[in-house]
C-alpha cells in the first residue's frame, strides 16, 4: 500500500493537537482581524470625544461605569498588544532568532502571557 492510501479520508480538526507556536500564530491572525473590526467603533468613539466637552464627559463617565465598555476596551488593548508582541516575535524568527523548538515554545508562552497582563495594566491605567 502506498503512502497516499494510508492518509485519513476524514480529518477531524478537534483531534489535532496543535503545538503552542501554531496556536500563537493563529491568535496573531485573530488579533489582527479583531483590530480591523474595531476600527469603526474606535473611530466613532474618537468622533464623539472630539464633538465637545459635554460628550467627552459623558463618554468618560461611560468608561468608568459600564463593565461592558471596560471589557471592550480590555479586548481592544489585548488585540493591539498581542499583535504587537507576536509581530516582534515573528520578526525575530525571520532573522533566525528563536527558531529552534524550545525557543519558539518559550517565546509563544511569553507572548501569550504578556498580552493580557499588559492589557490589564493599560486598562487600569486608562480607567
Structural write-up:
- The protein is an all-alpha fold and 127 residues long.
- Helix content is 80%, strand content 0%.
- The model has no long low-confidence stretch (mean pLDDT 90).
Write down the Rg.
Answer: 20 Å
> For the record, what CATH class applies?
Mainly Alpha
Distance between the termini: 64 Å
Total strands = 0
> Architecture in CATH?
Up-down Bundle
What's the tally of helices? 5
The biggest sheet, with number of strands, parallel, antiparallel or mixed sense and barrel status, is: none
Mean pLDDT: 90
Shape label: elongated
* Annotated CATH topology: 3 helical TM bundles of succinate and fumarate reductases
Low-confidence stretches: none
Topology overview:
Elements: H1 3-6, H2 20-49, H3 53-65, H4 67-94, H5 101-126
Key terms:
127 residues; mainly alpha; 5 helices
Quick structural summary:
It contains 5 helices and no strands. With 127 residues, the chain is mostly helical.
